[in-house]
Every structure is written in structure tokens, then in C-alpha cells.
Amino acid sequence: MGDEFVDFLKRALRGDAPLSDPADLAWFLAAYARTGLKRVEEVGDMQTLATLRSALEEALGLRFDDEDGEHFFRSALVQTLFYGVFAAWVFWSEHQPAQSSQRFTWRQAQWTLSVPMVRVLFQQLATPANLPAGLDEVLDWTDDVLARVDRDLFFRRFEAAEAVQYFYEPFLQAYDPQLRRELGVWYTPPEVVHYMVDRIDRALRSELSLPLGLADPLVHVLDPCTGTGSYLTAVIDRVVATLTEQGGNGLVAAEVKQAALSRIHGFELLPAPFVIAHLKIGIALARLGVPLDAAAGERASVYLTNALTGWVDDDTRLTLPFPEFVSERDAADAVKRDEPILVVLGNPPYNGFAGVSGREEGGLVEPYKAGLAAWDITKNKLDDLYIRFFRVAERRVAEQTGKGIICFVSNSSWLGDPSAVIMRERLLTEFDSVTVDHLNGDSRETGKKTPPAIRIHPSSPRRSTRQASPAGWRSACSCVPPNTRIPLRACGIGISGARTSEPSSRRPPPTRTLALATSRCHPRRPIGFGCCGGHPARVMRPGRRSRSCVPWIRCSDSMRTAGSR
Questions:
Q1: How much is the pLDDT for 462?
Q2: What is the mean pLDDT of residues 48-57?
Q3: Structure confidence at residue 472 (pLDDT)
Q4: Of 430, 426, 448, nearest to 439 (Cα)?
Q5: Counting runs of H as helices and runs of E as strands, what totals does the chain give?
Q6: Is residue 116 part of a domain?
């Protein structure tokens, strides 16, 4: 019995009963999306699909290779279409009373999203004249099932902004488990996000003499791997809080909106999380009373683009078939080349996707490889995606803006891997201070396992350097109460010994680090490394290696010994 027939029977048996359980709605939407994908696959190599494919490949610097790449391309488009309808319904529900007689239709979605590039995808995929696959019929079924939702009960489970983000994973799992395994999760635990944003805000005030922190109009922020927009919405929340604390008046909302339009930037490679990020920011602004005006061309500064390309002028770019794609690419390139980015933050990806090959600027990580021969290193592990994002951020902040902050959560291999020695040296040379919150625990090499919790403690003003316990991070964090124990199962952090919500194929190594680097345009500091666990420090030079050494957490004129944080 085929899967499509089974889906049909399940839909028939469930009849027209009202829906309130998110799992039930996720199943219905995923079932319709699977039907839509089957129809798209049955039409074969239509010109519309070929045009969309070549346009996306050129705009994003990707190649959808072989059968895996073709499946990824079509599956990603269809799930973007159907999840975009759900996200637009959530946004519509924010402005319609639950008892309203008005009914949402999928044809409203492309206008609700306020992103011209996404409107092109809707028009090309869902219009029978462009793609005679019958997707409009399946989308009409989706309208019917959304009309059956008891919105009062449904939104008791989720806030609207949370529904757009957290509903996505069960939908994707039901829609295409293989794609779900490829993509992993696209959101970072909110406790981690707010911790990082709070750290950045304090560093801007204390290290770069910007008393308003992230709320300062001179601070341009970039998340080069935006995903569902968790970091950007957290930055917006921090800006709102700061301006309100400063005796905010009626202009606070307008200032926040201007920040979202012009100086809080995000890049995302995949359409579905890109749509989610736009919806979350749109909902946040609407709740402040300053909704985006699509008719006036207002949109959040989040772009569908490859963050590893476009940072330098490229005269070889092809002409794209859709002007909306051209505008998207040009706007993203303008952010990369012209905006004075002061903060780069986020959670870089660890792996690529089967059948998808990404393009990057030639020699992007070569500065991290230059000189490895002097260390007798012939093989390296410097082509991981997260290493490339470190290099992009370092170049943008240290070499172009000349000052600023990088704050990434990543795996920890760059701290101790011998082949990352030049990378560590560059970071210590380019930045005035480098702080690493190290969660320790490396069951693959040492057998040491981190207990399944993060403990955030109040910092001690008597200690200039604080040593973190293996169980967590040590810092003052205004967004989480002192001595709070956050279960890792809830956070989904890939720590050995704790279950996570990330699939094994995309799960990072069992140790993660939070790295924060600050540059104040000061003279270069001396280079040094300190060993894990507070062992005596050593200055590392070519010809001498230590697998256990990690960067100093702070570079200063009086190089004090420090363990990893």
C-alpha cells in the first residue's frame, strides 16, 4: 500500500473534526506537502523548474548535483511553499479575532510575507500557467485544514512568534524525514541565544565605549547564518529593553523598526528558515505597533544569500531571470561590502547537504593554512564550514571595519587541533581579547563527559579571570537568574551523555565552545596560548606543538595564565 494512499485514508478517517493539537496540524500540512512534492516530481523537467533552479544556483552560489541535489532542490521549494502558507496564517491570526468569520487563503501568503523574492517562488510554483502540477488544488486543501483549527486552543500551546519557529521541526519530520536528517534543527536554544546577546551588549559598553550597547545607532549587527532568526529577534528585544530603560518615549518603536530595516542584518542560504526569520521579525515589529509596510517596500534586512561569497566585487556574475532575485543579491552584496559591520554573531553550520555543493571565494581560509609546513603539518581540518565562517567574520571585523566583536557558538576542535594553530595565532594577533566559554567534555578522545546541564553563576568581581566548571559557563548574565540550572535536553546542545534534538548526521562534536573576540583598534598584542585546566602557560612558536593547548582567554600586556572558560 503506497504512502500516498495511506495518507489519503488517514485524512478521510479524520474527517472534518476541529484541530487543536499542533502534532495533528503538522501531520496534515506535511501530508499535503508530500502530495505536492509528488506532483512536482511527476511533471519532470519543466522549464519553470529549470529556470528557478538555475536562478537559485547563480544567486546563492550553489550547485544541486546529481539525484540527491535534484531531490533537495524540489523538496526544499515545496516545503518552503507549504510552510510559508502556515507562517502567513500565523501572522494573519495575530490580526484576526479567533471568532472572526473571515477565512485565510493561501493566495494572501505571498503578500503577507513582504519579501519579493519569496513572492516569485509562490507565483512560479503555485500558478498553473507557470507550473501545471496542480499545486493550487493541494494548497486549497491546506486552506480547508487551517480553517478547521481551533485557534484559541492552538495558540495556548504557542505564542505566535514561537509557533512559526518551533512548529517547523515536527512539520519537517513528518514531511521529509531524510531532509530533516540532512538539515538538523535550525534554531539555537533561547537560553544560549540570550546569553550571547547579553555578553555582546556588555562588551560593546565596556570594551568599545558605546553606552547604549546594541541600541547604539552606530552598531551594525550581522548573523551570517541566520536560520530562523533567533539571534536577530533577540537583538531586537535587547534594543527595545535598552531604549525603554533610557526613559523611552513614543519614538522607541520607530527607532527599533529603523534598526531592523537598516542595521540588524542576516544572511540565510535556505528558503524555509529565511521565510521563518522574516515572519518572526515582522511579528515582533507588529507587536510594537510599527508593522512593516509592504506597499512601501519595507522589509527586514535579512537576505537569501550565500554568506561565503560576494564580499568582493565579481564581474563574472550572470544575469538572473527574475528582477526580484537580482535585487535580493545586490542588496545582500551591499551589506557585505559597504555596511560598517561591528558585531558578527551566530551559530555557524557544521556540515553541508548531500547533493549540494557550495561556492566560496577562492583562498578564503588560506590565511589559516599559510605556515603550517613550518609546524610539520601536511594535513588539516580547516575546510569545515564553521571554520570558513570564522574566517569571514574575522576578515570583516578586523580587516575591514577595523574594530568590533565576533561571538560564535561552535564545536571545539579549533581550540586544540594542531592544524588550527595558525587560525588561533591570527585570532590572538587580530583581536585585543579572546574569551572562550568551553563546555569541556570530549568522550571521543578523553572519555570525559559533561553533566547534562548548564549552570550560570554570578560572576565574582574579585577575580579578573574566572574558571568554568566542566558543567557549564561562569558569567554574569542578566537574562537568566543566577544559579539557574538549564537541562540540556531542553536546550538541545550536543553534549556527550545528554540526549539532544539534533540528528546524529548533523550533530556537532560532543564539545561546544562559545568564542567572543573583541577588537578595539589597539596595537597588536603578543601571541600566547594557555593550556586547558589552568596548567602553566607557554608561548607557542613554529616547531613546537601541543595538542592540549588552547588560546589565552585574554590577550593583555601582562599575559596572565588562564584556563579555558
A1: 32
A2: 86
A3: 27
A4: 448
A5: 21, 13
A6: yes
Side-chain-side CA neighbours of 194 within 13 Å: the count stands at 14
CA distances (Å), origin 20, targets 140, 143, 152, 155, 527 = 20, 16, 8, 9, 59
User: 130-134, 159-163, 498-502, 520-524: which has the highest mean pLDDT?
Assistant: 130-134
pLDDT 10s digits, 86-96: 888 888 888 78
> Measured in whole angstroms, how far is the alpha carbon of residue 56 from the centre of its chain?
20
The beta strands (E) that lie in 200-240 are given as 220-223
In-domain check, residue 467: no
Which residues on neighbouring strands pair with residue 149, listed in sequence order? 19
Q: Write phi, then psi, for 531 (nearest 5 degrees).
A: -85, 155
Burial of 70 (0-12, 13-18, 19+ CB in 10 A): middle
Structural domain contains residue 89: yes
* Cβ–Cβ under 8 Å, residues 269 and 304: yes
Closest CA relative to residue 468, chosen from 505, 403, 512: 512
| pLDDT at residue 242, rounded to an integer | 96
| CA 306 to the chain's CA centroid | 13
Measured CA to CA in angstroms, residue 269 lies from 72, 84, 304 at distances of: 13, 16, 6
* CA pair distance 234, 248, nearest whole angstrom: 19
Three-class DSSP category at 550: strand
**Helix, strand or coil for residue 529?**
strand
Q: Which three cell numbers stand for residue 84?
A: 510559508
Highest-confidence segment of 39-43, 107-111, 260-264: 260-264
Mean pLDDT of the chain: 74
Mean pLDDT calculated for residue range 259-263 = 97
In a domain, 42, yes or no: yes
Q: How many residues can be counted in the chain?
A: 565
CB 438 within 8 A of CB 564: yes
Number of neighbours of residue 545 by Cβ within 10 angstroms:
13
**Range(s) of the domain holding residue 176:** 3-183
- Alpha-carbon distance of 300 to 329, in angstroms, equals 15
The residue type found at 373 is: A
Residue 449: band (very low, low, confident or very high) from pLDDT cuts 50, 70, 90: low
**Do residues 478 and 472 touch, judged by C-beta distance below 8 A?**
no
Q: Which residues contact 258 (CB under 8 A, 6 or more apart)?
A: none
Q: Let me know: does 394 contact 404? Beta carbons within 8 Å.
A: no
C-alpha angle 327-330-336 in degrees, rounded to nearest 5? 145
Question: Cα-flanking dihedrals φ and ψ of residue 389, to 5°?
Answer: -70, -35
Residue with the bigger pLDDT between 421 and 520: it is 421
Rg (CA), the chain: 24
pLDDT (mean) for 338-350: 92
Instruction: Count the domains in the chain.
Output: 1
In this structure, is the dihedral angle defined by the CA atoms of residues 188, 90, 331 and 301, taken in order, positive or negative? negative
Distance CA 124, CA 131 (A): 7
Tally of CB atoms within 10 A around 442: 18
Amino acid letter, residue 119: R
Q: Do 131 and 48 meet the contact criterion of CB atoms below 8 Å apart?
A: yes
